[in-house]
Amino acid sequence: MIYNEAYWKDVERVIPHVKDIKKLYGKTILITGGSGLICSCVVDIIYYLNTHDNADIRIIHAARTHEEPADRFPHMKEGPDYGFVYYDATKAEGIDVEADYIIHAASNANPAAYVAEPVETMAANFIGLNNLLSMAVKKGTKRVLYISSSEVYGQKEGMEPYFENDYGYLDILNQRASYPSSKRASETLCVAYSMEYGMDTVIARPGHIYGPGVTPFDNRATAQFTRNAVKGEDIVMKSAGSQLRSYCYSLDCATALLAILLSGESQNAYNISNPDSIITISRIAKCIAEAAGTKLTYENPDDAEAAGYNLMSNSSLDSKKLEALGWAAEFSPEEGADRCVRFYG
After folding, report:
1. Among residues 316, 319, 321, which one has the least CA distance to residue 159?
2. First vs last Cα of the chain: how many Å apart?
3. What are phi and psi of 103, to 5 degrees?
4. Using alpha carbons only, what angle is made at residue 175 by residues 172 and 178, rounded to the nearest 5 degrees?
5. Does the structure show a pLDDT above 70 at 165?
6. Which of 22, 209, 249, 254 is the most exposed, fewest CB within 10 Å of its CB?
7. CB neighbours (10 Å) of residue 304?
């Protein structure tokens, strides 16, 4: 990730879309998965608020190693505004942290790993969340935001966007079902904690998020497109790319998460989608290729690649419920693709 003046101007640009952002001022927020594509931008926004608006927000970064956050945020040092705690979402052991808010994003987000490590995928999504919710009840945490996935919807007929109460068919015995099945169960777990223990929970369902902060181990399509483009290599599509997806640039997704955390209705789920970026996979690939001045080519996938593919031909999401919180996206696919190339490092 390249941090420069242009990137911080983009951070400043998106902050007004979180109308209740000052609710975070002076609070402590525990974030799991904070080095990943989505929540790293949440950390960037909070860092900006602390350095430019004296927001006094304390971030506790929960991760398996110190190296992950240190590599992702070289400008951040442990101190009054930032701390680290060891956390492995696949293990039964919990953590002991007092926080006003929790954002749980730690999850296996690598499609190839859903097939290779289905047990770990399910454990991280369900056991990891259960540990956090149990701790949150004991510590009196104000609210827990669980980051789920658009894959909970399964498959339905037609190409209309999914609303939050649209649920289609999901083959629970498919080799790739560990991810969407455990995400579905985890959403129910959030609501169960709210009903039984009074824990305030809210759920985000991001669509397909892209941006410059992809990790070397992320093999999702847009992550591969970004790495290829930055290297000056052709972007190679392993399908026709006709699947319809809801894309959202990472900084826009981060403000959506904060809007849901601070303004969303308890025990509700919210789609995260830029209504102007409901496009095909081939379209987003073309945007990234054009931003880098490279070519878009096509090849057949091998068996391992095909096994990890999202089976949904349409995973477009309706974002009206999120927009009703005062949120709006800033970045078009062309702008987002430009940022992928400019800020990836």
Report:
1. 316
2. 5
3. -115, 120
4. 60
5. yes
6. 22
7. 10
Q: Answer for the pair 201, 143: CB distance below 8 angstroms, yes or no.
A: yes
Residue 63 β-bridge partners: 86
Q: Look up residue 183 and give its two tokens.
A: 């995400």
pLDDT for 322-344, tens place per residue?
999 999 999 999 999 999 999 99
Residue 159 phi/psi, 5-degree rounding, is: -120, 20
Tens digits of residue pLDDT in 298-316:
887 776 666 656 566 888 9
Residue 243: which of 283, 188, 192 has the closest Cα? 283
pLDDT of residue 240: 82
Note whether 19 and 259 are within 8 A (CB): yes
**How many CB atoms sit inside 10 A of residue 92's CB?**
10
Percentage of the chain lying above the pLDDT 90 cut: 78
Q: Which residues does 233 contact at the CB level (< 8 Å), separation at least 6?
A: 294
Q: Determine which helix (DSSP H) or strand (DSSP E) holds 282, and give its type and residue range.
A: helix 281-292
Angle value at C-alpha 91, between 85 and 95, nearest 5 degrees = 35
- Token pair, residue 100, equals 């006003």
Say what the pTM is. 0.94
Tell me the sheet residues that pair with 317: 162
* Bridge partners, residue 217, by sequence: none
Which residues share a beta bridge with 55?
Answer: none
